Amino acid sequence: MKIHDFNERLKDAILIADGAMGSMLHEAVGPQRCFDELNATEPEAVFRIHQAYIEAGAQIIETNTFGANRFKLAPLGLGDKVQRLNSRGVKIAREARESAAREVLIAGSLGPLGLGVQARHPDDKEILDVFYEQALALEERGVDFYILETFSYIEEILLAVDAIRSFSGLPIVAELTYSEEGTTHGDIRPSDAASRLKNKNVQVIGANCTLGPQALLPILQELSAVDDIRISAMPNAGFPKREGDRIVYPKSSPEYFALFAREAAALGVRILGGCCGTTPAHIRAMAEAVKSLRPAQTHAVGPTVEAVAKPTPIPISQREPESNFWKKLNKKEFAVCVEIDPPKGLSLDRIFEQVDKVMASGKVDVIDINSGAMARVGMDALVVAGALEGRGVETIPHLTTRDQNIIGLQAGLLGAWTVGGVRNVLAITGDPPSVGDYPETSGVYEVDSVGLVKVLGRLNQGTDWAGKTLGGATNFAIGVALNPVADDVDNEIARFHAKVEAGAHFAMTQPLFDPEHWRAFLKKLGGGQPRIPILIGVWPLNSYKQALRLNNEVPGIVIPESLLRSMERAGASARDCGFQVARQMLAWARTELAGAYLIPPFKRYEEILEIL
User: Fold this and answer.
1) To the nearest 10°, the Cα dihedral for 63, 65, 66, 71?
2) For a surface tag, which of 276, 386, 449, 484 has the fewest beta carbons within 10 Å of its beta carbon?
């Protein structure tokens, strides 16, 4: 379809689009790892949903290709199916159109890449290539226009538009998703987003998902104040809830959507449809409601009340972390940590007793606290850290992304800062649940350690990840893990650089047993010292069998063959050998590194004093 023809259709008409493909498929075939895959495995189910929406009055149907891009498909082993799944999606939509009694337009659906705060954040060229590949597959199969929907990042949707415009002259509908406060990610107002999109040869600018009908109206009102744009609106049925393994949307009545449709038409909306939870009944009600209506003409009427009242947040200038531990590192003074495991039960008494003994030596600066090591349940590291901080002991709790999504991670960090007095955090991805006591569970892993560093960096700047101001700012010293003896050292180095770029202040290595392992890593890193202070892990070995098990069964641990043979020959004196190596590693670390953390053998914390 030519852009001129598309614009002419929208000049004096309101086109009705379809509703929720994803939630309808969920109801029809149950939970899936990827709804786009159903284009190949359950095409009849997709066809029936298209047909139901057409019969309800939809003049536009969207292809079932929202997530059919390489970035989302590759982790599922479907990276080579981009062309097939998109082609099949268009083919099914065309078959549905051909069976219709009237003309229906086919919109090629492209969703965001799900970048979030993942570690492997592609550069702009890769993002352009991913959108180009999907859009080209859709156009080659015969879509009438494109719809970019549910984007949270203005930068990403602009790149998607650029990718399409690099080869295509088809019309584009570009929709962002907004919060109840009327902003998208980065605290960007609808009017600001529209101003950036309108100069990109986009034919319709709108909002979809997240919000229900009434909450979406203020967004549409603000968009209507931007001159020379056409608007689309596709609200959710409302706020969902979870019932068992199902996501259930409220029973918003069709009459409720009909009311919304009339109000949206009065604001000048040209394309009306639905998003999550909306059914053919909702679409039918909207189609009936606007059948005899013409869209109001949008024009510039000045910013809405919401836009005026919403101040632009002022970012907090970069600050040095305030923890005593960080100050010591900054002064190039060698820092010593002792690692502890949280209790498996309800009592902290033994932890308090052992930590008091260690700290009384005057040779330890900070206690670092494991978080669910080997995916086993223990008391939360942030909570244990708060308890120790209350006793005057500085801590570095580990925080794993395995167990919580971004919302939970931020909530825990805000509480740790404000209530617990925690000032240092080690950001880690965490061992998979399959290695622990709950192999049947699945990890969250919404972000990895690089993403968590980014989240911490935002909190340190006074905003949450979505860009909402916090009324203050944390100032964590952000630590990360580093494995100099990783199987794939090149990948480890790439991830280390990504962590530093994301805002890491210091790193703690896996336990090392030979200085040459560190020196070999430095050479691969490019020579010279890393950009952030490094603390080495020191683990006093108790026996030959322990050393043998660690070397063969624990990921990330490499014990030199020479040490294994020495401990084997030492027999009953193997512990003395292991402890002597630990003393040597600590002495060496004092000459080349910023600090060390010591791992007590079998949680006998008092034995650490033998090393010190």
Assistant:
1) -160
2) 386
Residues 114-151 have pLDDT tens digits of 876 555 678 899 999 999 999 999 999 999 999 999 99
pLDDT at residue 354 tops 90: yes
Packing angle between helix 449-460 and helix 406-418, nearest 10 degrees? 50
Task: Give the count of alpha carbons within 13 A of 338, CB side only.
Answer: 28
Cβ-defined contacts of 153-159 (< 8 Å, 24+): 153/112, 153/115, 153/184, 153/185, 153/186, 154/184, 154/185, 154/186, 154/188, 154/193, 154/196, 156/112, 156/113, 156/115, 156/127, 157/112, 157/197, 158/196, 158/197, 158/200, 159/124, 159/127, 159/128, 159/131
Please, which residues have CB within 8 angstroms of residue 319's CB and are 6 or more apart in sequence? 460, 475
The b/e string for 521-557 (b: 16+ C-beta within 10 A; e otherwise) is: beeebeeeebebbbbbbbbbbbbbebbeebbeeeebb
Check if 3-309 and 348-611 are the same fold: yes
Domain layout of the chain by residue ranges: 3-309, 348-611
348-611 CATH pick, 3.20.20.220, 3.30.450.40, 3.40.190.80, 3.90.105.10: 3.20.20.220
Strand partners, 269: 231
**Which DSSP category does 17 fall into?**
B
Tokens of 296: 């109001």
Strands of 228-360, DSSP E: 231-234, 241-243, 246-248, 269-272, 335-340
pTM: 0.76
Beta bridge partners of 248: 241
Q: What are the pLDDT digits (tens) for 562-595?
A: 999 999 999 999 999 999 999 999 999 999 999 9
Would you list the DSSP string of 416-478?
HHHTS---EEEEE----GGGSS-TTS----SS-HHHHHHHHHHHHTTB-TTS-B-SS---PEE
Structure tokens at 381: 């590291």
pLDDT-derived band at 443, boundaries 50, 70, 90: confident
Q: Report the alpha-carbon distance of residue 463 to residue 223 in Å, rounded.
A: 25
For residue range 278-324, list pLDDT tens digits in order: 999 999 999 999 998 888 765 433 333 333 334 444 456 568 999 99
Residue 274 is which amino acid?
G
Q: Could you name the CATH architecture of 3-309? A: Alpha-Beta Barrel (3.20)
The mean predicted confidence, pLDDT, of the chain is 91
506 membership: H or E segment, kind and range: strand 506-511
pLDDT at 300: 39
